[in-house]
């Protein structure tokens, strides 16, 4: 008996925002299998020095910034969801090259280019889709749901990734991540394509009227690197175990999932800026203590506090960012992503110059106060 090709999609959610949540959750799960381990993979498995690993992320950030206007132009012409789709093969090729780095070390630059290009296309597409599909009056709640479902999807990712890497190696783990990544893009296309206008302009990227927002986005970028690169390295140097690092990654997800949705919903009826500023001050205090941990108990305690505070901050902060995207929306997100990339480069440069990961974390404790300009 023949089964119609779209049989299974009849059971799939029809609401575009729900499809977006599922797509982002699948991608987050795929990336969580390996993302937290990439700095350590380069350091431990491929024998690059710490300086080379940090320079890899500097180069990735430069390419990310350069590719962002190109991604916006592509999305404007071919559609926002097609920009997301194009990001998938770039990421898969990145993982393939990452696996073969020991044979041809110079490929580390090419792999960084692929990673930066993939992220530029993905985030430009996703930001613009979410900005159009979400609702202004409920954006805090919707941002909370979006963050919650991605966190749920990543709760077991680092732990499972640690087990797969320890048991079967990085090759199989990369393969599983690539498969789930492909499915995430297919899900997004179950609703119609969306479009937006964008024309490249240096003036729009460096608009003086947005300088306060740009300074905040620079701090946002350094925050991303501290959380995704410096902290995993810092923890691994203490724990010396992929499995233990995976547990810490999952613990960060577990402690924040409920708060993301609750605070997001609450922020729709309260002053988002007040919530963001108070939690940013608390987060700076946690960063200060984070730079000084030296045992497992301290790592667990700091991780829990960091996750709880971050969960309270993230939904209203994300909603406020989307609320500010008015007028030339694509241009706003191009400027945002470039500023975030500058923040990534800045904190990595500080670590390279000071030869201290703790120094980079302490810098973020101060940089967090840029939120008062936002």
CATH class: Mainly Alpha
How many separate domains?
Answer: 1
Task: Tell me which oligomeric state these chains represent.
Answer: single chain
Structural class: mainly alpha
Helix tally equals 16
> Quick one: overall form?
globular
Share of helical residues: over 70%
N to C succession of SSEs: HHHHHHHHHHHHHHHH
Number of strands: 0
The unreliable regions are 1-12
Question: Can you give the mean pLDDT?
Answer: 81
Could you say what the CATH architecture is? Up-down Bundle
Strand proportion, as a percent range, falls in: under 5%
Could you state the CATH homologous superfamily? MFS general substrate transporter like domains
Radius of gyration: 20 Å
Distance between the termini: 60 Å
CATH topology: Growth Hormone, Chain: A
Report on this structure:
With 374 residues, this protein is mainly α. The protein has one domain: Growth Hormone, Chain: A. 78% of the residues lie in helices and 0% in strands. It is built from 16 helices and no strands.
Keywords:
about 375 residues; mainly alpha; Growth Hormone, Chain: A; 16 helices
Write a brief structural summary.
The chain is mainly alpha-helical and 374 residues long. The chain has 16 helices and no strands.
Question: What's the layout of helices and strands?
Answer:
Elements: H1 16-32, H2 38-45, H3 50-78, H4 80-99, H5 107-133, H6 139-154, H7 157-168, H8 170-188, H9 202-205, H10 211-239, H11 242-254, H12 257-267, H13 272-290, H14 296-324, H15 329-354, H16 357-367
Helix pairs in contact: 1-6, 1-8, 3-4, 3-5, 3-15, 4-5, 4-8, 5-15, 6-12, 6-14, 7-8, 7-11, 10-11, 10-15, 10-16, 11-14, 12-14, 13-14, 13-16, 15-16
